[in-house]
């Protein structure tokens, strides 16, 4: 059942190109003040940064997108080859199917062989911590791909509107804290498209979580995805009512940076261009994640994934140049202005 559900998710996202909800990212409401005299050499702009103890060439992360579907092995291999070639990290999708069954769907040490020089992030769902998962399964997720960190993904809305969803979320903060204490790698917590509030982020930081991925609204809406795979009109009606649920990505990043100034923040959720990435970094993201935007490239070849991020990097570099920013640190100080509302 799990494998079939993952296949349905993949088919829906690939078939539609994007399953967005009724909400924008918030990036459209802001723009950079243009610097007509940058006084820098565009070729000398440094886009590199540090993540999980490794130097990466640009502030990008291929976010979790595939779990137990049969195509996951080819997708993950394409991503691994591409990410190692261009020097950026990647996260695998949920490893639940691989842990629970005899089929690993490519979630094995071959990924580390294909990507020896970049951070790789393992992934399990928070809800599974109340269905029998614990330290043993978390360690297995990390060890099976030789990961540099473990993502615990939060998807309460998706679980709530999914007919087969796991809806007992009591006591999970303490269980996440226990994993932080027990694991030898950092724990990353991410949403899947509704955002992480400052209060939740502060609770996670107190529990020992090292990295928070806001995954705000404006990208793939999993409520909309679940509405499309609903078995009855009633189930579809419940899910579709939440297509505008959550905090827009831009709002979530800014609020989280203000509330948690020392946190390592990944900004994701509807990041479509290098200009979006630049805005996310300016608002407080240390790294920018993409999933659905990369998915079609990842189903094709490593070369298409490389080309995608070459375009993203080129766009980000132009944004830096036209704000007079010679590094990501300087980009974080670039001037922003609100886009005037129409009418």
Automatic annotation (TrEMBL):
EC number, UniProt record: 5.3.3.2
Residues the entry annotates as binding Mg(2+): 159
Keyword Metal-binding: yes
Domain (FMN-dependent dehydrogenase) ranges: 24-95, 175-336
Cellular location(s): Cytoplasm
Alphabetized UniProt keyword annotations: Cytoplasm, Flavoprotein, FMN, Isomerase, Isoprene biosynthesis, Magnesium, Metal-binding, NADP
Residues bound to substrate: 5-6, 94-96, 158
Top EC class of this enzyme: isomerase
Catalytic activities: isopentenyl diphosphate = dimethylallyl diphosphate
Presence of the UniProt keyword Cytoplasm in the record: yes
Cofactor: FMN; Mg(2+); NADPH
Binding positions for FMN per the UniProt entry: 63-66, 94, 123, 190, 220, 270-272, 291-292
UniProt family annotation: Belongs to the IPP isomerase type 2 family.
Subunit structure: Homooctamer. Dimer of tetramers.
PANTHER family: ISOPENTENYL-DIPHOSPHATE DELTA-ISOMERASE
Functional note: Involved in the biosynthesis of isoprenoids. Catalyzes the 1,3-allylic rearrangement of the homoallylic substrate isopentenyl (IPP) to its allylic isomer, dimethylallyl diphosphate (DMAPP).
Protein name from the UniProt record: Isopentenyl-diphosphate delta-isomerase
């Amino acid at each position: 059942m799990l494998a079939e559900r993952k296949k349905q998710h993949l088919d829906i996202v690939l078939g539609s190109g994007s399953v967005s909800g009724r909400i924008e990212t918030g990036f459209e409401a802001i723009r950079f003040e243009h610097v007509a005299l940058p006084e820098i050499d565009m070729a000398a702009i440094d886009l590199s940064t540090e993540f999980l103890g490794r130097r990466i060439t640009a502030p990008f992360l291929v976010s979790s997108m595939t779990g137990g579907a049969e195509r996951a092995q080819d997708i993950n291999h394409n991503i691994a080859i591409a990410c190692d070639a261009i020097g950026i990290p990647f996260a695998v999708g949920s490893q639940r199917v691989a842990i629970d069954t005899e089929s690993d769907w490519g979630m094995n040490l071959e990924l580390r062989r294909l990507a020896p020089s970049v951070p790789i992030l393992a992934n399990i769902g928070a809800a599974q911590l109340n269905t029998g998962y614990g330290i043993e399964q978390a360690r297995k997720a990390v060890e099976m791909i030789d990961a540099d960190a473990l993502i615990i993904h939060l998807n309460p809305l998706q679980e709530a509107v999914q007919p087969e969803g796991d809806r007992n979320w009591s006591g999970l903060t303490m269980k996440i804290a226990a994993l932080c204490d027990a694991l030898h790698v950092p724990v990353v917590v991410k949403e899947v498209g509704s955002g992480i509030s400052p209060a939740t982020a502060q609770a996670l930081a107190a529990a020992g979580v090292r990295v928070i991925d806001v995954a705000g609204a404006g990208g793939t809406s999993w409520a909309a995805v679940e509405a499309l795979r609903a078995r009855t009109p009633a189930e579809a009606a419940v899910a579709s009512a939440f297509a505008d649920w959550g905090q827009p990505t831009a709002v979530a990043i800014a609020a989280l940076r203000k509330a948690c100034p020392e946190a390592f923040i990944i900004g994701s959720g509807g990041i479509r261009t290098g200009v979006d990435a630049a805005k996310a970094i300016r608002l407080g993201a240390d790294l920018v994640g993409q999933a659905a935007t990369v998915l079609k490239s990842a189903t094709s070849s490593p070369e298409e994934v490389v080309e995608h991020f070459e375009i993203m990097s080129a766009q980000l570099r132009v944004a830096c140049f036209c704000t007079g920013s010679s590094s990501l640190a300087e980009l974080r100080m670039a001037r922003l202005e609100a886009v005037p509302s129409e009418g």
